[in-house]
């Protein structure tokens, strides 16, 4: 099973999608991408290949406590952003003619990919590479995962942060949508929730 | 205390960021940095000339130097006999000569006494340490590996040729040590988790200190503690005492360089 298949399995088979799953997806995709020089578009970054033993770029979740690589830069951090629910249809979002009665919503979520470097130009190049990768991977993600929209929205301006010899940061917001459907049985006090890409 | 016993004269012109001549107990040091605007291709060589008359004959005391400092031994070191120096940068494209600098710049006795008072007061507390000063190159040979000549910036912070500075070699180790004085010893903090969950795991080892000595200390220069060879970037530096326009003390902020930082690969002489 490839790394991509393994990460996809977290999303499929009716599993709930959580922010943690999306963080894991983004981290895995980025680590895989930066492990082969054939992938990398910007020549200046081709020497920064990530492997198990050598990590010239730290690619991690911002929620991970990793003392061994504290403060290491450049780094790409996966940061969970806001989630929002959108009601579908009219009324309670009830799926027409479903038995038992089913309801549907879409969830709009956002993760931010934070690229931090020690030089402004380096940070810009790193963020551009990540942005282009996330843009080009979009069709694959949509084809493979139960997600209806997956989009790198752009890049923020470069900001200085007070660490090391003054570091620089660019954020790349990634938005995604997916649907959830569920049925509620009040008498039995049970709820069944499924995730699907199908329109209700 | 070093610095007080020294004489130094600063020079700056369109070809050089600075040229400094410093008389110390151990000799006369000349050091300089070419202007950052010069981005001629490598190699860069320097000639040093000395004269007792700025309008008279000049004598080459060193030629085709690669380093950007030179330890001179003038025949007589005295306030009464000034020596004049000038530096010429030679590239494959052009020659750039500095303004004339003299080694005589001793401040008045009143200024010297005032400076001694300031420094004595600082010796009363606290915690002090000696450190090697690494001056970040502003000018000099552009890095052949990562320097963008159109933008005049480095593009790789871990470049082994320029150490992320854009100029070959990255830093110049000054021949003498400087002193750090602080209210607590300079050390390191343990790693912490960024509670905003945006920057991952951090090592926020930032210290305020006073730096005594010469030469000019600028942000992005670096220091290496003599005691344990830990390396720090100077991230802020403000002159807090000067005599006759010559800085003798800086209030500085220093931050520990991470263990994988390219600064760790700089070889001390």
Write the layout of secondary structure elements.
The complex is a heterodimer of chains A (200) and B (269).
Chain A lengths: L2 H7 L9 H15 L24 E4 L13 E13 L14 E16 L2 H17 L1 H7 L4 E4 L6 E3 L5 E19 L4 E7 L4
Parallel strand pairs in A: 1-2
Antiparallel strand pairs in A: 2-3, 3-6, 4-6, 5-6, 6-7
Helix pairs in contact in A: 1-2
Chain B lengths: L6 E5 L4 E9 L2 E8 L10 E7 L7 E7 L3 E4 L11 E7 L4 E3 L3 E2 L6 H15 L3 E10 L10 E2 L4 E2 L16 E12 L9 E2 L7 E2 L3 E7 L9 E4 L5 E13 L2 E11 L13
Antiparallel strand pairs in B: 1-2, 2-3, 3-6, 4-5, 4-7, 7-8, 7-9, 10-13, 10-17, 11-12, 13-16, 14-15, 16-19, 17-18, 18-19
Beta-strand content bin of chain A: 25-35%
User: Mean pLDDT of chain B, rounded to whole units?
Assistant: 83
Q: Note the total helix count of chain A.
A: 4
Which shape of chain A, going by the Cα principal axes?
elongated
β-strand amount of chain B: 35-45%
Strand order in the sheet with the most strands of chain B: 10-13-16-19-18-17
Number of domains of chain B: 2
Helical residues, percent of chain A: 10-25%
- Main sheet record of chain A: 7 strands, mixed
In the CATH scheme, what's the topology name of chain A?
Answer: STM4215-like
Order of helices and strands of chain B: EEEEEEEEEHEEEEEEEEEE
β-strand number of chain B: 19
Helix amount of chain B:
under 10%
């Amino acid at each position: 099973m490839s790394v991509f298949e393994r990460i996809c399995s977290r999303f499929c088979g009716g599993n709930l999608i959580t922010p943690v799953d999306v963080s894991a997806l983004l981290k895995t995709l980025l680590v895989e991408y930066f492990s082969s020089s054939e992938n990398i578009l910007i020549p200046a970054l081709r020497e920064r290949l990530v492997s198990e033993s050598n990590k010239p770029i730290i690619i991690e979740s911002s929620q991970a406590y990793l003392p061994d690589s504290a403060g290491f830069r450049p780094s790409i951090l996966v940061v969970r952003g806001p989630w929002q629910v959108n009601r579908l249809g009219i009324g309670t979002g009830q799926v027409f003619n479903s038995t038992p009665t089913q309801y549907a919503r879409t969830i709009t979520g956002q993760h931010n990919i934070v690229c931090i470097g020690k030089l402004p130009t380096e940070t810009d190049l790193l963020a551009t590479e990540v942005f282009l990768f996330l843009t080009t991977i979009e069709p694959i993600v949509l084809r493979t995962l139960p997600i209806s929209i997956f989009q790198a929205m752009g890049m923020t301006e470069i900001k200085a942060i007070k660490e090391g010899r003054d570091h620089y940061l660019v954020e790349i917001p990634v938005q995604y949508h997916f649907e959830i459907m569920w049925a509620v049985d009040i008498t039995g006090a049970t709820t069944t929730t499924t995730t699907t890409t199908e329109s209700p | 205390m070093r610095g007080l016993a020294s004489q130094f004269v600063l020079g700056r012109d369109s070809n050089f960021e600075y040229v400094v001549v410093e008389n110390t107990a151990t000799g006369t040091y000349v050091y300089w940095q070419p202007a950052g605007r010069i981005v001629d291709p490598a190699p860069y060589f320097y000639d040093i000339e000395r004269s007792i008359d700025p309008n008279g004959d000049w004598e080459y005391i060193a030629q085709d130097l690669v380093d950007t400092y030179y330890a001179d031994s003038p025949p007589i070191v005295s306030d009464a006999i000034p020596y004049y120096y000038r530096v010429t940068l030679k590239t494959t494209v052009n020659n750039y000569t500095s303004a004339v600098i003299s080694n005589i710049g001793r401040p008045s006795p009143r200024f010297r006494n005032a400076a001694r008072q300031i420094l004595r007061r600082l010796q009363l507390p606290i915690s002090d340490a000696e450190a090697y000063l690494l001056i970040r190159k502003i000018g000099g040979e552009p890095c052949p590996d990562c320097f963008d000549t159109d933008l005049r910036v480095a593009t790789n912070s871990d470049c082994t040729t320029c150490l992320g500075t854009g100029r070959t070699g990255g830093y110049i180790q000054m021949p003498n040590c400087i002193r750090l004085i602080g209210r607590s010893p300079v050390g390191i903090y343990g790693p912490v988790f960024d509670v905003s969950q945006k920057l991952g795991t951090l090592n926020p080892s930032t210290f305020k200190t006073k730096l005594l000595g010469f030469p000019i200390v600028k942000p992005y220069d670096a220091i290496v503690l003599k005691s344990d060879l830990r390396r720090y970037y100077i991230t802020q530096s403000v002159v807090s005492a000067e005599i006759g326009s010559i800085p003798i003390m800086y209030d500085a902020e220093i931050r520990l360089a991470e263990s994988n930082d390219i600064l760790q690969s700089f070889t001390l002489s």
